[in-house]
Amino acid sequence: MKMVCTKKNLNSGLTITSRVIGSGNTLPILNNILFKTEDGRLKLSSTNLEMAINTWVGGKIEEEGEITVPARLINDYVNNIAADKITITSKNHTLFLEAEKAQTHIKGLSSEEFPLIPEIKDENFAKVDGKEFSKIIRQVTFAAAFSETQPEISGVLFSFDGSDLVLAATDRYRLGEGKVKLTAPITTPKQVIVPARAVNELARIVGSGIVEILLGEGQICFRAPDVELVSRLIEGQYPDYKQIVPKNYSTEAEVDKEQFMQSLKAASLFTSENKNIELDLNPQNKQIVIKSQSSQVGDSEISVDAVFAGQKNTIVFNYRYLLECLSNLADERVTLKAISSSSPAAIVPVGRENYLYIVMPIKI
To answer: What are the DNA polymerase III beta sliding clamp central domain coordinates in residue numbering (predicted)?
Structure first.
């Protein structure tokens, strides 16, 4: 193999593909990135056997070839050398990198040892705007569980129906649901569960272009310009989360999101290990009063102005569950909806109907 490319393009491709590679791999080849010339470009591939990432780097290909090299080593090296262009060659399981003032040889492994990354046919796919897609991913995926005993809720449910793609994630204590429009409707509704880690990686690598979604047997592929992510699907039945979503609420309080979030952060400094805070929803005073106390630190009471509808309510929450939702929303104002101290509550952005967050209260 021999090619010339810019350091910027190579560095970007290596950064993306290196993210899949974890520590403690029992197979040495899983610590490596596959370099392969393909269709006039350099293809970089990595996998952890659960998901894989392919990226394509533009450049001048002079000779075809392929090799695998340690991901961390080459990523750190390319990131630190001073160069505009890099010449890449390979011979006898060694990768040679040559820049204006730097030369290095990196020992690699044969590409024949690299695991085969599934190729999914183009016939079965939907398309979605990458910017909106990644925004909804961030607002939903954090609610997924980290569970080996319940693998279904360690994933994100993708529901394709008509012109809509609905994402949902839950750990049974909170639920995030977001909807994004497909660029063209699909004829057959479909549901699949995608591992949350793969979905999180997807949000980091897709840009503002169109993302194609391809479904295969037990696999899903997300294809964006110059990059694609392939992941296994999680088998099993996702919980029927719709049954916990309240249809009516007795109290609604609209607040400035940033002010509410900063007040929660301040109040959290006075919580004990259980991370509980009390929200006193008082329509008469037009305020949400945030109360917290710790026998070791002290106590706090912070008021936030709100626009109310309904009756007075007092509810206890794990403050982390509120902050994780609010910190992922770019909206200026949100509405907190509640029923009682023992019923699920909701957070929804004001003026936007494609997102819903449900959180369970703490029963004292």
So the answer is: 128-240
